[in-house]
Amino acid sequence: MPGVRLVQRVSSTRAFAKVAPHLIPALDRAVHRLTRGKVLLSAQMLPGIVLTARGARSGLERRTPLACMPEAGAARVRGETGAGGAAATGETGGAKEARGAVDTGGTPDAEGGAGAPESGWILVGSNFGRTGHPAWTANLLAHPDAVISWKGEDIPVTARLLTGEERAAVWRTALAFWPPYATYQARVDREIRLFRIVRRQATVTPDAVDGPPPA
Question: What is the pTM of this model?
Answer without folding.
Answer: 0.66
